[in-house]
Every structure is written in C-alpha cells, then in structure tokens.
Amino acid sequence: MSDDEQAGGAADDAPEQPGAGRSSDDGKKAGDDRKAGDDRKQDRGRQDRDDRARDGDDKSDEEKSAEDEEAEKEKEREKERERAAGRFKERTRDPLADEQGEEGPTDLAAAARTRRATRQLFDVRRDLISFAHSRLQSAHIGDNFNLLLGSRQAGAGMRSGPVPEEELRRLRRVHVEPEGYVRLRTALRARRLLVLGAAPGTGRTSTALSLLDEVTTSTADGTDAESVARVRRVDSDGGIRQLAETLDSEGGDAWRGTGHLLELSLARPGVLPPDEMDLDELAAALARREAFAVVVVAVGSAANPLLAGRYGMLCPPAPTEELLATRLREQLQERAADARVDDTSLDDLLARAEDLAARAEVDDAVGLKDLRPAEAELLASLLAGHVLGDVSYEELLSGCRSIAAEQAQEWFAGVDRALAAPPEGAERADRGAARPGTATLFHPVAFRIALAVLGGASHSAVATAAHLLTWELSVQSDPDHTPARPLFCDDPEADVALSRAELTDGKVEVAGHDVPARLIWYRGAALPSAVLTELWDRHFPVRAPVVRWLRLLADDPRSQVWMRAAVAAGELCVRDFDHGYTELVRPLAESTANRRLIFAATTLDQAASHASHRKAVHRLIGDWVKRGTPSQRWSAAWALGYGNAAASMDATLDALARIGARDEGELVSVASHNVVRLLVLPDAAEVLARMAEWTHHKREPYQDLGLAATVRLALTTVDELLMDPDAPLDDCDSPWADRGDWPLVLALAAIRPELVEAMADLMWTALNTARSKDVAMDALEELLRSAVRKDGSEWTRPGLAALLPALATDEQDRRRLDWLLRRMMNDPEKPLPEPKARDLWFLAVPAPERTRQEERHG
Questions:
Q1: Structure-derived torsion over alpha carbons of residues 574, 577, 583, 589, reported in degrees to the nearest 10
Q2: Beta bridge partners of 314
C-alpha cells in the first residue's frame, strides 16, 4: 500500500510501559540521564546545522534548486497524507450524525430495540396467524350441528318483543357472572333502573338479561311464569321517554312486575344521550308498575354522562377460563346426549377438550388473552367438534384464527355508513353541506389502527398518532370541508375498553435514557395482524389516508414511533406489494432525509422476512445497487445490513462493496456501517475475511471500505446493531445478554474467541496505515477506557483480555500500546490512573514477554 507506514515507528523515545515497578530514586536517576542525553543531542544538532550551512555555501545554484524542489514535493506529499487522513476520518463518522432539521439525529440503539420488540408482534414464523389468508366461514359438524363463525351478528337486527322463556332457562345454565354481579343486582332492585356500560361483545346484554330474569322471578308473586312475558326487549328507536309513556298509559298495568331491556346506540353523529330528568321519569314509572329496566350503552365519551349519574354502573367482562369451561361443558353435554355418551366418557371428553385448548398451537391460533361470550362459545364448539371427530385439526386452527379476524371485521364494517347517506329531510341542494361529527365517528377506528401499528409504544404516542389519522380519514371522507378537531373529547378508558387494549407500566427512551411511561398493547397477539389485514384487504378507499399517515410517522423523531411504523408498513406491503412499493417505499427511498431512507429499508426487510416476497425484494435491492440513485443505494445499503436483502452473505457483501466503492467512495460511511451490522450474524467469519480482502485491494475505495469497517467495528456498540429478535439482549440465556453497551469487537472477542485473530489482524492493519492510524488509535483508546466502569465495576475487561494479546504480539506493537497508555495517563481532561494503566498493560503482555520487555527498556 503506497501510503502505509508503521505507526509507532518513531517510538524509540516513547515512555516505558506503565507499572515497571521502579523505585523513586531509580526514576530520578533515569530522569537525570535522559536530560543529559537530550543536552548532548542538542549540541550535536547545532554542530550539524553549522556544518550544513558551510557546505551549502560551496553548492551550486542547480543543486540548491533540486533540494528546494525535493523539499516542496515532500511538503506536498505530507499535505496529501493529511488530506487522505481527513477524508478517511469523515468516512468513519456515524452516517446519521449529519442529519439536519429540528428532529435531531436518529438514535440507532433505540431504533434497534424498538424493531426487535415490534417484529415480535408480527412474527412471520407463525404465518397461519399473522395475516391469515384463510377464513373459515362455516363448518358442518356432524349431522345436527352447523357452526356459523359470524354468529355474533345473528341478533343485530332484533326488534321489540318478549324474551322466550327457553332462552332465559338456557341463560341460567350457561351465564357466567362477572365480578361485582351481586352489586349490580342490588342496585337494580333498589332503583328499578340501571344504566349498564360496557364494550360491545363483552357479555353486557347477557348480564342485563340475567339480572332482569332474577329480579322479575323474585317479584312474580305466584304468577305463572310460563304464561307471562316477564322480560322484554324494547326497540331503541323510541328511547327512554317512549318506554316511560308506555308504562304510564292506560294499558300499562299489563307490564306490572316485568323487566325491560333497552340498548342505546350513541355512536352515530348527532345522537344525544337521554338526560337525568328522563331517567328519573322512567324510574318513577317503573316504580309505579313494580317493574325493572336495564339500559345497555357502550362505554365512551357520549355515554359518560349516563354512567356518571345515579343510575350508571360499569359491567366488567366475565372471566375467560370459567366462561370457556362453562360453554365447553354445555356443548359436550348437548352432543354427548345425541351420541348416548355416559358421564364417565363425558368427563374424559371434557378433559381432552381442555387439554386441547391449552395446547400452544391452539392458543397461538386464537391469539387473544380474553375471550368474549360469543368467542368462547365458538371456541367451545370447535373444541367439542374436534374431540368428537366432527372437525379436523386444520379446521380447528382455521376456526381459531378466524376469531380475531371476525373481531376486526366487526370493528370496521360500515363505520361511515351514516355519513354516506344525506341527513334525513335534507334538500338536494343541501347535500353538499359539511357533515358534522366526522372526527368523533372516525376516532375509534383510527385508534385501533394506530394501536395495530404502534402497539407497545406509550399511550400518548398512540393517542397522538390516532388523532393524526382521524384528521386524514376525515379529510378523505369530506375533502371539500375542513373537519373539526375536538380538543377535549378524549376518553382514554373508553379507547382502551373499546379496542380490547391494556395499559402497562414500562419505559421509553428519551435522548438515550429510559424514563417511566404507560405503554399500551392489544390484549392478544393476533389482533394487530387482523386489524391491518382487514384494513388493507377489504377497505381500499382507506389506503390513501393511511399511506399519508405512515409518511408522517416516518418523520417522527421518536424511535418508538417511526420504527414501529416501518415494520407495520412492511406487513402491509406483503398484503399488496405493488401498491406498497409505489405509494410508500419508492417515495421514501428517494428522499434526502436519512430517517426516511432507513424507514424504506426497514419496510423492505420486513417484507423480505416473508418467504413469499423474499425474491422480489432481492431483485429490487439488486436493481438499486446497480442502477439506483444515490438515495436508493443508501437505502439499499441499510436494507442489506439486516441480512435478508440478498440471496446469501456473499451476495450481500458483494452488493455493499459495489455501493461503497462507487463514485470514489461517496457512500463508504453507510456501506461500512452496514458491513459491521452483519457481524452479529452467524456468518461473521466470512464478513471478517472479506474485510481483510478489501484492505489489500488495489483500489483505494475498497481499501477505505475495509479500513472504515474495521474502525467502526471498534466504535460501534452491540445494541446499535443487534437487530434480530432471535437474539434478544434481555434474554438471560443469550450470549449478548448484559453486553448491549459493549463495543462490538470486544463483545465478539468474549463470545466468539475463534474470531479474535482475524479482528486483531484488521485492527493492526488500520493502526499501521497512514490515513487510518490516527482514527484507529483513538478507537483503541476508547476500547481501553471501557475496561471498567466509573464506579469500578467490571465492564469489557474479559473482551480486552481476549483481544489485546493478539494485538500486541511483537516489540513494535507493545511500544505503540505503551505510548498510548502513557498518553492516556497524561490526558489533562481524562487522566487514566496508573493502576488501571498497569492492569491494561498486564492484560496485553503475557508475564514471560513482560519480563523481557522490562529488561529491554532498562
């Protein structure tokens, strides 16, 4: 290499190794000898200059001119070496350090941790659960049973009328009382009227019917229950006032002692809840007829006044385990009776069904932490059908996967149907008027989408993203008018309940530090995929506002937001790669903002995680590497650093070398960074071998790529690079555990000793190459300072103990290390204590070699 030179070659005058163990008198004598020697050197220097001056007088002008020319050439060579060193230093800087704008630089360590957490929500190894293509709509089980998976919608259109006694009897058998059921019953008996609030599908209607069945039975006074409709459903169109008027009418005595169930829908724009006076009037009418009524409402901001009043109470969901066990026993009893199965066999079937429900594959297929009554009944039907031989195992899993899919479909079906129709009584000319309430209407679905994309982030981040999406949905729905943005309408408790979410105490990273936060998740691993699948596959008009929203999230400076959005965008691309690439990936990959380029790269890597799209991503990245713009090549380099964007490690390294060497090394910085990211993969030995080849390449850009990757290997910490969820940092069994803040080279030295020699050879080359030696020396200093923490506890000392002996194998290397340690000891800002310097020296130099070194240094 033309510009190679031995760093430390002028180290003859360097200090001896730290901790040589000499006494203070020996040190004073050595200092006097060194001073005398320096005086003699100065005298000889003055004599030499005088001699050269006398000889110069005798030289010809031609000789003087040649010497001056040679001196100028030497100065120019020195300047060129300085320029080369400066260029190389720039190429070893963080590729994101120069990001401009108010957002500030991207925190790669936080982004890496966020990606690991988010990919676990979209586990592509469970393709049958994540974005399941199959949806079992119906299954014929035996000769007498036909299971409809959309059974939750069966009673959606039911109007006023009596509740059959047979239904009430069945309810008594299978109803599971939620927590606080006795308190609800006591309140209903005392006030005659109860406003019961809960999320739809949680069993609130069953609880209301059970309450009415109990209180009306106790007040029947001997009346023949079979001939009197004790419990009735009331059409919600008439509302509270109409029910009160009916009870007080001339024929109202016929309703004496009866129970009334009224379900109010307050979700439609313009619908107002009844006020307290209306409820008081109804309660008085009920008391006059010794009757009861339960008004069921969905929790939310519209229902808050009702639930906060004297009649309002919340209805918690029934416990899942008890709910499933009850439904399962009922299903088996019904079918066992037809099959003439005795009690012993029934108990055996029940045990088998419960064991089947506890199987990990079935639990993963369901993907929900809590089951609602209709879901528990569905799962019980599938389990019973399988143990009885009517449902195959594949049909069982398909039916389980459909539970979350049905929930997502229920959430999004016909959300804006009320907006699509003109207001009642509106004239044709008024149909273009602004439609109020769009924000209130779209906020619940926007929150569910935001939670699917950002699950695991802070509640505030998800809520803020949901408001951004609400705006985009409102504008898309009514582009001619600016939608209102309510400022004080949030109801966090309702958002959590209506979205089947849960809040947990956790931490988020702010400026590299963990701070406490309230995190929010779906209560079920299957819901994020189910929501995005429903959104992308069944509601095409919503794609445009969602894409605009994802672009906004790509610019968010918080890693917990933009990285989660990038992973979710990759899952959407799997659903429709043509649309995702055209509308999202390509525009972001042509940006000048590095964070957007990483967003595009992460999206492509997530798509490549699916076998169905891996080859397409490989071809796309290959095109970007060969014929792409500089921004596309930058994004391609980052995608290659994940290890999934090319067919093999050899192809990955070839592509990174092409990117790094093109245009005189313009993208060496990002290429070298992503070469180092590959070193956490099992093919690290192949990566190191290729780096060594580059350092000996005849072309300087390849040399710079190898040298820059070597320096970055020493400067980059593990938590910036360990992106694969298969090797989580927080797993106590992982070799990377507790090494997240270690420099990668030292972590590898401790974990994989077979790589030490190759890494030491690379560092030796960087330390002995003129343009890289200063940066490499600074990197080595950082490694040495990481031996112990400020509090004295051990840090990277095991890694240094493995690496330093391989890096200081001869006299020249040890003299360089000796000089560096003394420089660190004399550092005015961060002086290295002598005992620590001595300990580092002893780590690097074995005891026998250390003795000869001490003798040689006098």
A1: 90
A2: 197
Residues 364 and 457 in one domain: no
Coil, helix or strand at residue 519: strand
| Residues 6 or more apart in contact with residue 705 via CB below 8 angstroms | 656, 657, 660, 661, 665, 668, 671, 672, 675, 694
Please state whether the predicted TM-score (pTM) of the whole model is above 0.70.
yes
Per the CB < 8 A criterion, the answer to whether 298 and 266 are in contact is yes
Q: What φ, ψ does residue 437 adopt, rounded to 5°?
A: 85, 10
Q: What are phi and psi of 69, to 5 degrees?
A: -65, -40
CA angle 704, 710, 714 (to 5 degrees): 140
- Does residue 855 carry a pLDDT above 80? no
Same domain for 334 and 303: no
Sign of the C-alpha dihedral computed for residues 789, 795, 798 and 799 taken in this order: negative
1-10, 231-240, 668-677: the lowest-pLDDT one: 1-10
Residues 661 and 708 in one domain: yes
- 636 domain residue, yes or no: no
The answer to whether residue 429 sits within a structural domain is no
Contact 430, 407 (CB under 8 A): no
Handedness of CA 641, 646, 651, 657 (dihedral sign): negative
Helix (H, G, I), strand (E, B) or coil at 506: strand
User: Strands 231-234 and 259-263: what pairing?
Assistant: parallel
- Please compute the mean of the pLDDT values over residues 36-61 and round it to a whole number: 51
pLDDT-based confidence at residue 144 (cuts at 50, 70, 90): very low
Whether the Cβ atoms of residue 567 and residue 599 lie closer than 8 Å to each other: no
Alpha helices in 289-319 (DSSP H): 304-308
Place of tokens 């059974």: 151
Q: How far is CA 376 from the centre of its chain?
A: 30
Please identify, among 582, 608, 634, the residue that sits at the C-terminal boundary of a domain.
608
Using the predicted structure, report yes or no on whether residue 338 has a pLDDT greater than 80.
no
Is residue 763 domain-shared with residue 845, that is, in the same domain? yes
The pLDDT-based confidence of 9 (bands split at 50, 70, 90) is: very low
pLDDT value at 800 more than 70: yes
Of 248-257, 478-487, 748-757, give the lowest mean pLDDT range.
Answer: 478-487
pLDDT score for 663: 87
Task: Sheet containing 259-263: give its strands across.
Answer: 161-162, 231-234, 259-263, 292-298, 193-198, 312-314
pLDDT at 24 over 60: no
Number of structural domains found in the chain: 4
313 in Cβ contact with 191 (< 8 Å): no
Dihedral sign (CA 453, 459, 463, 464): negative
Dig out the tokens for 22 from the structure: 């000499």
Q: Which residues contact 390 (CB under 8 A, 6 or more apart)?
A: 141, 142, 145
Residue 274 has pLDDT above 60, yes or no: yes
